[in-house]
Amino acid sequence: MAPGTQAGTSRRGEGIVERVPPTSYFLVSAVFHYLGPSLAVLLFAQVDVLGVAWFRIATAAVVFALWRRPWRMVRRLSVPQRWTLVGLGALLAGMNIAFYLAIDRLPLATVSAIEFLGTVVVATVGVRSRRNVAALAITVGGVGALSDVVLVAHPLGLVLAFANCAGFMAYVVLGHRIANARPQGSDRRGTMDGIDQLGAAMIVAAVVATPIALGGALPTFAHPILVLAGIGVGICSSVIPYVTDQLAMARLPRATFALMLALLPAAATVIGLVVLGQVPTVTDFIGIGLVIAGLALHQPADDDPHSRPSDSPHSFSSTAWRGSARAIPKERREL
Fold it and tell me: Domain boundaries in the chain?
């Protein structure tokens, strides 16, 4: 295929991607955010925890390398942008390892609730009005009702859970940074640029994680079914949710995206009902209702540089739930 044809195909692909509402990408991410860990927990009985973490990271790195060949993009980045990718890669490796070690010691609901504390901090940074404070309080209340958090007496597990919390908070910040970065020599931010940079960061993550976690995965290579299961964990846990995160982050304010992460406990409740047959309690329904109410009430502040009006019909805000919408102008998206 000629270069011009490839460029035209890429632009058409980006046009299709941009016509999909960013909230749709987030909902896909929310579903797979819990499907992946569910598969991982099942594997813990037969595969070392660090081995499962290695499969998650290595699978994502291979998929991104084959799909996007991100090293082409890296050549066009500035030195500070490259260091951001290195930092994000090391962060992804540490965050995923800490998460799996934590859920091996603590209930998944407890680790997930602690993880959400970081997103509350990120969302609070973007709050500029009493309305948003109220939205945040309602959303936190809903998450608390869904999570029913009980901190068990396992010091190492709690340390790992809070380490994952800090990592997830940094992931939201750095993820937005690469989602809105513009390579040198480019006069526009391409939709797939952030995904290419994410792919490069995942390769860095695999390099960092391999000396630490490969040993736990080596015995698994004698069992093809377990290898396939490990690959499935990587695709469900890192490829699909991270890609859809990037597509959402490119068009959602950072504070709004962080607050929308409160949908994750609600998504877990729905998945439990549909997949596992776990019927929600009255408290669960109250929690889901509070989360939705908080998200509907939240609105990016007028002085938030990531939340100015634009012509895009797909940006998320409180008015988007009522049929109209706002977007972030491209020239204001840089963090």
Answer: 23-332
